[in-house]
Specification:
3 domains, globular, alpha/beta, seven-stranded mixed β-sheet, Rossmann fold
Length: 303
């Protein structure tokens, strides 16, 4: 079997009762696979052999997806062989414009539209100076979801469905390397805060924001499930499967207090539906994205 390329079907892997089928591409170094049948994997981590490559994987989310991370050098030897010079030049030019504080959302969107869809994740990584998949740190709690970036196209869909504007404060819950918060800020002009439990990811993302003079982009280190109460001005909360179970329930319960002070929207990607009675689901044309608006809630009384 030939080595897989992002955005292209690379055939099926037959592992007996653990058969996998290629589903779609997630960025320039992530592949997504989906179970052909509802069979169980032992644990949430493992590895398969694809040709001569051993590929580690991590399960993520409540649906039957297996996200498989492959380092860039394993795909096409070097990223420069996959991304043409014009894409790199565009990212570097935009980076200089950002450092000179000369970029507005309309300029960014126009530059984005000039990039071929298959190259947009690479383009954003060049802009944000991401060379490789960051390793997960020791702060990741047991059962926590490893860092997995959300594809540029999916993030932009979510921003559109959630109607994010420059008047919003966008909170990326489990912000990882900071790509989603960066994209939300540059596309809409919204102020953005990334909440990330892994120290190295949060600090590196903030260093990049400072380097590009992005004053309305901030990354905060800590457990998002516990920190949401400290982001009372948030109006849009973005969740790409940052956690599940009891931690997710605690997080959404904490958001109810924020919703009593102002209307909020919650945007979820690849997650089970939220069923809290104070949330109303917004119709969207996507099977992967869910958007919710808070209902009007009375302020809590003290005493």
């Amino acid at each position: 079997m030939s080595q897989p390329r992002p955005g292209r079907t690379c055939g099926a892997y037959d592992g007996g009762d653990r058969s996998l089928r290629h589903f779609l591409s997630m960025g320039s170094w992530r592949l997504v696979w989906v179970l052909d049948a509802p069979v169980a994997f032992s644990g949430r981590h493992g590895a398969i052999l694809l040709g001569s490559m051993r590929i580690s994987f991590s399960c993520k989310g409540s649906r039957r997806y297996i996200y498989i991370g492959i380092s860039r050098h394993m795909l096409d030897v070097a990223q420069s062989n996959r991304v043409n010079a014009s894409v790199r030049a565009s990212a570097l030019r935009l980076r200089r414009e950002l450092q000179g504080r000369r970029i507005v959302p309309a300029t960014f969107r126009a530059e984005y539209e000039r990039i071929h869809p298959e190259s947009r994740d690479d383009w954003l990584d060049y802009l944000w100076d991401i060379d490789e998949i960051p390793a997960d740190g020791p702060e990741l709690p047991r059962g926590g979801v490893p860092y997995l970036p959300c594809a540029v196209g999916t993030v932009l869909e979510a921003l559109q469905y959630a109607a994010v504007t420059s008047d919003d404060l966008f909170v990326d819950v489990g912000s990882g390397a900071g790509r989603t918060a960066l994209l939300a800020h540059l596309t809409t002009g919204a102020g953005c805060i990334g909440l990330e439990i892994q120290t190295a990811l949060a600090r590196t993302a903030q260093a990049r924001a400072d380097w590009l003079n992005l004053d309305r982009l901030r990354f905060v280190e800590g457990d998002a499930a516990k920190m949401v109460r400290f982001v009372p001005l948030g109006t849009v909360f973005f969740l790409y499967c940052p956690f599940g179970g009891e931690r997710l329930r605690r997080f959404v319960a904490a958001l109810e207090d924020t919703a009593r002070a102002r209307p909020i929207r919650i945007c979820c990607v690849d997650m089970s539906p939220l069923t809290e009675p104070w949330l109303a689901r917004v119709p969207v044309a996507s099977s992967r994205i869910d958007v919710y608006k808070s209902a009007r809630l009375p302020l809590r009384t003290i005493g």
